[in-house]
Amino acid sequence: MNNLAELEMSIGVIAAEGRAAIEKAGSPDECEQLRVALLGRKGRVTTLFAEMRNFSDGDRPKAGLLLNQLRGQLESQLEAKGTELSSARLQDQLIAEGIDVTLPGRPAHLGHLHIITQTLREIYAIFQQMGYQIVQTPEVETDEMNFQLLNFPPDHPAREMQSTFLTKQEGVILRTHTSPGQIRVMRENCPEPVRAILPGKCYRYEQITPRSEIQFEQVEGIAVGEQITMADLKGVLTEFARQMFGDATKIKLRGSYFPFTEPSIEVDVTCILCKGKGCRICKGSGWLEILGSGMVHPVVLKNGGYDPEKYSGFAFGMGPARIAMLKYQIEDIRLLLGNDLRFLKQF
Amino acid sequence: MLVPIRWLKEYVEIPVSVEELAHRLTMAGVEVASIEKIPSGEVDWKDIIVGQIVAVERHPNADRLSIAKVNCGDGVLTSVTGAPNIKVGMKDLKVAVAKLGARIMNAYATEPTTPVTIQVQAATLRGVDSQVVLCSEKELGLSDDHTDVMLLEKDATVGAALVDLLGDQVLEIELTPNLGRCLSVIGIAREVAALTGSKLHIKSPKWKTSDEPSEGQAKIEILDDALCPRYSAALIKGVKIKEAPFWMRYRLMLAGMRPINSIVDISNYVMLEWGQPLHAFDYDKLVGRAGGKHPGIIIRRAQAGEKLVTLDKIERQLTDEMLMICDEKGPIALAGVMGGLETEVSGSTKNILLESANFHAINNRKTAMALLLPSEASQRYTRGVPPESTELGAMRAADLMRQISRGTIARGLLDVYPKPRQPKIISLPIREVKRLLGIEMSAKEISEILKRLEFKSRKVKENLEVSVPYYRLDVEIPADLIEEVARVIGYDRLPSTLMSDRLPPQKRNRSQEMEERVRDLLAGMGLTEVVNYSLTNLASLSKLDPSGKMASGAFVELANPISTERSVMRSTLMNGLLESVAVNQRHQDHIGIFEVGRIFLSNPESHDGLPDEPRRIGIALAGSQEEASWTEPSQFVDFYALTGAIEALFSRLGLSKAVHISTQHPTFHPGRSAEIRLGNLKLGVLGEAHPEVAAKFDLRGRVYLAELDLETLIAHATEIKCYEPLPRFPGIRQDIAVVVDLNLPAKRIEDLIRREGGELLRELTLFDVYEGKPLPDGKKSLAYALDYRADERTLKDEEAQAIHLRIQSAVEKELSAQVRGAGG
Ligand SMILES: [Zn+2]
User: What is the mean pLDDT of residues A164-184?
Assistant: First the structure.
């Protein structure tokens, strides 16, 4: 071959036959075979390139241009077809690999912390950022620590508020509240100021009913310093309530009585269920009684080692069980020590 | 304390609604638990009116019934009644008449299904038409009494609506122990005045006496003036004991006391009014005991062996702790607790010796508690009654007995008061209000507030000299006055401030942090936290030792357990955990639980008698390995599930060096128990519960249990000191399988391999344990993957091979093992 007309004719034939063959190709393998047959070392296009040497110098550039166009055209057709075929194959494969995504997952085994532990931790976190330190004190206490140093004289009627388990050892009882910890932390830190949170189990001689338990957790708080006022107490409790129960939570202070605080107050917070509108849980009042509190009684400060004329302080006590029960609408306190996994695993 | 509002209004104006009053009292520390409406919501007294009985006739056809003609203001209506207090021939009685359509309580509502109220309908009873109902207390919703028709005051206006005559509201007040002063209507009235700013009109009691002097007719002698600071008595002669007037009975009823007779009712009424308990003796019985002479009243402690039969007809054994009212013959009353039967007032009593005394609060409480005799009187003495009020109570009650029971009062109060109390004056530094409450108040403001509570004060330099009203036994120190100021102005008026005091140095509590970390780690492994009672019992604890040999003496035992089940403080977490497993096995296949808590070990050495309270970690596993899932076949937990959890825990606490070695412990399977040691230190025990232990706790299947000593763990836990650089050069991994005697502990093989492997053996992983064919009987094969590596260069194959061969030969020689499949 040595003239352009003949070449153009051959190119036309190869282009037409090549396109048809490529379109018919059914697999990436067939595409590869076509590529070899057309563009391979002995392929039809390569063969035509070899003919170029027979062309005149004037025609050769034009022949080269036409052949390169043909090659480019076939290459891109092969490429397009190859892509099309492999993505179709992948598609088939993916369809074949489908699984039932609605089956439950393979369980990751995470355990559960007790609801009281979780509630305690919330309380800890709030007070720790306010500078309170967590201190644990004994669950079995002396009558002196649990009562006398807290301004409950022997046989005082205030002891009726806290029916007590006695041990066989004279003067040793199960603590009825975490308040004896107040004396212990004060004695440990005097004359430095104190800010502490005292968590732990307490015990009272009560009938076990849906509403009362013989064993329960309490969290005591105490702050003693040289310029601590009841307004500060209100500030701390307002902040606690806001963080524990939500930004809109308000507190209300009611007069009360505890032998170890003077003045003594009960603190109510906006009902967490009805947000103050009144519901069954708050008995329509919109408020929930959440903790007892007051300014540390001068006698107690003195028993802790501080001069009550120079130092002052406040203390408060709350029950994580009550908080958890309100929050999760648990109506039977016995569930908390019942250890039924069907209950514990809900939290 | 129940306070009817109409009664309260006798002493103080109430310028606010009852709801608002209840709110203010509550906010000031006098908690109003409820406001009871009289009548209660179920009945409606608007349709019930005052009627006057004009005639009572015999029912022609029924002996037990009578026919009452009642003037209802707008006509005379007929009522057929069976009430025993409506007798033929009676007239002029005022009664509560329920007309047609009125809603009254159903007196016969005995079943929960019967309606609580009924509507009055016309009825024909044995042939006689009954148009209205003459109501009993029960039908009016006042009490459970349905015997008699309730008779109203004689001067009640006929036709008036009952609600206008008797409708009321009753405050139910819950009093804290410091509020003894509020155990009286007058006490509450004083609070109301202080909190609303309205005026009190309390009249100091006055009496009209006869000329006959009381002196000499009885002699009073106090032998223990610590327990009886004051004893007053009035002598009232010639009383006629009958029913108290309606207004008094009605008030008592609303205040929760059952009317009895005029003398008892007056005593109770005055106690409720003034807070002073009273006791009436039959004077003639005292004279009788004195052999016709004037009696002598002696207040003294009981002597050993003395007895008294109290009003409730029970013979009481007395101790010398108990204060008694006696005469020459012996005890006649338990002072301030309960009267004696013999000298009790009866229907035929003529002359009364009325006791109005003051007794020691704590001694009174002890006696009342020892004899299980809580009474209205004791409730008041226990919370403190001022000695000044004996006189007030005696005069008020004696004069009511004169007016109501037609007695005459002998002139002069018999009164022994050995050490009259001095008025209390407290010096209140004015700046204390600011220092404790955080609000600025002037001396004048403070003084004004205190005045509302009847405290008088005057400014002396920087202080207020405050004199305390006689009835405020609870106010003793400046802080008490500050509480009064705060609660009257209202705690809600205090500002809310940020603490300006110096922040104490902040210290971390590492022990607490570690405890919480242990909880997180165990929960992270899929275990769920339980909390058991710290109180258990010896029977449960002894189930942990089937041999029955249980350590004793170290327990903290209760002297007053609430039940035998909860009588001893736990000395281990193990029995509680096994009980928790048993409870859950009823409905759970997989149980993985833990507890972190204290145990209690009595310590004879402790200076204050307190036990040691070390914290322990308990873990229990039972049933299937994990919660059932379709992805894996369910397997049962085994010993290694437990040790795996504990190894992971220890590894995270920096205690990887801890090892478990086989041990014997009564709670565990002898072939499946281990002790955890760190050097010579014991960290805990673990194992499979002994089948006999499992049976005693009603456990199903094999249960795995561990108890670790948290205190020791915390003390020896280490933190990561320095990180280990990542390997820079490749290592060589070779496996070795060792066939040894079945009972050779794996730890021996591992120790030997590590010893021979030296520094270049970087890791050893057991990946297979096999026994059975084709191994000979009594043999097992353990396969380990060994990783050799050097830090500073690429290890040569020959080097690794040399160590590997050394390990092989040592294993063969020292453990008589056969090595299989050696090589890379
Ligand atoms: Zn609510």
Answer: 96
State in Å: Cα A289 to ligand 1 middle. 11
Domain ranges across chain A = 4-97, 115-344
Q: What percent of chain B has pLDDT over 90?
A: 82
CB B404 within 8 A of CB B245: yes
Reading the block at residue A13, the tokens are: 């034939």
Q: Write down the pLDDT at residue B823.
A: 41
What are B91's two structure tokens? 């007239």
User: pLDDT (tens digit, 9 = 90+) per residue, B323-367?
Assistant: 999 999 999 999 999 999 999 999 999 999 999 999 999 999 999
Q: How far is the CA of A242 from the centre of ligand 1 (A)?
A: 16
What is the A251 CA–ligand 1 centroid distance (Å)?
Answer: 14
pLDDT at B633 over 80: no
Element (H, E) at B357: strand B352-358
> Residue B780: how many CB atoms within 10 A of its CB?
17
Residue whose C-alpha is closest to residue B232's, from B282, B276, B166, B176 = B276
* Range list of H helices, B610-707: 639-652, 691-696
H/E run at residue A129: none
Residue among B29, B494, B561 whose CB faces A234 most closely = B494
For the domain made up of A115-344, give the CATH fold.
BirA Bifunctional Protein; domain 2 (3.30.930)
Contact A166 B560 (CB under 8 A): yes
Out of A140, A226, A263, the one facing B486 most closely (by C-beta) is: A263
DSSP A162: S
How does DSSP assign B750-789, residue by residue? HHHHHHHHGGGEEEEEEEEEE-STTSPTTEEEEEEEEEE-
Instruction: Give me the sheet containing B779-788, strands edge to edge.
Output: B761-770, B779-788, B732-741, B818-823
**Residues 6+ positions from A305 with CB-CB distance below 8 Å:** A186, A187, A190, A191
Answer yes or no: is pLDDT of B628 > 90: no
- Chain B CB contacts of A339 below 8 Å: 530-532, 580, 583-584, 593
pLDDT of residue B822: 45
pLDDT in tens, B114-166: 788 888 888 888 888 889 999 999 899 888 888 899 999 888 999 999 999 99
Q: How far is the CA of A283 from the centre of ligand 1 (A)?
A: 7
Q: Which residues of A touch B479 (CB under 8 A)?
A: 262-263, 295, 297-298
pLDDT tens-digit profile of B503-539?
A: 999 888 999 999 999 999 999 999 999 999 999 999 9
Q: What is the pLDDT of residue B821?
A: 61
How many Cβ atoms from other residues are within 10 Å of residue B501's Cβ?
Answer: 18
pLDDT in tens, B644-684: 999 999 999 999 888 888 899 999 999 999 999 999 999 99
CA distance A123 to A321: 12
Q: Is the pLDDT of residue A76 over 90?
A: yes
Q: Which chain B residue's Cα is nearest to A312?
A: B436
Residue to test with chain B: of A219, A257, A264, A310, most B Cβ within 10 A? A257
End-to-end CA distance of chain B: 90
Q: Do β-strands A194-203 and A133-134 pair in parallel, antiparallel, or remain unpaired?
A: parallel
Considering only the beta carbons, identify the residue of B365, B512, B566 that sits closest to A136: B512
Q: Which of A229, A314, A340 to mutate to probe the B interface, most B CBs <10 Å?
A: A229
The answer to whether B487 faces chain A, any CB pair under 8 Å, is yes
pLDDT at residue B626 greater than cutoff 80: no
- Contact residues on chain B for A114, CB-CB shorter than 8 A: 529-531
Q: Tell me, yes or no, if B17 comes closer than 8 A to chain A by beta carbon.
A: no
Rg (CA), chain B: 42
Q: How far is A73 from chain B (nearest CA, A)?
A: 51
Identify the closest residue of chain A to B534 by CA–CA distance: A215
Over 50: is that where the pLDDT of A135 sits? yes
